[in-house]
Fold this protein.
Amino acid sequence: MRLLLLNGPNLNLLGLREPGLYGASTLAAIEADLQERAADLGVELACFQSNHEGALVDRIQAARGAESGENVAGILINAGAFTHTSVAIRDALLGVAIPYVELHLSNVHAREAFRHHSYLADRAIGVVSGFGSASYRLALEGLVGHLQARGGVG
């Protein structure tokens, strides 16, 4: 079973960008930890990061179905600032109809008012925020649990 982790703009700067807010872990370290946990859960995890909205939309569309050769069963997405601005990413997620979990390192509801709205949350199977890099593991475990309950994993 294959899952996809998507990271949006500025997440490539993790470990450098505002470590008091986002933590000291790099994106590479988070991805390596998550791939190890995914293997423990019996799933494969592909990772993708882009600062470009269109690249994220293209990657979401490529995840769809057997015709793409990917058969992605679920998506983990930290869309970064695009969470609060991107109808295009929302439309891509809805268009491929792959279950997804929205995740964030920080508690977006304890931050600036413009971060309180998500274009993705209302159609996500779950939202995890505020647990730092552990948000990724929690989101992965929640997604796998959801897919298992539906008979889609392991």
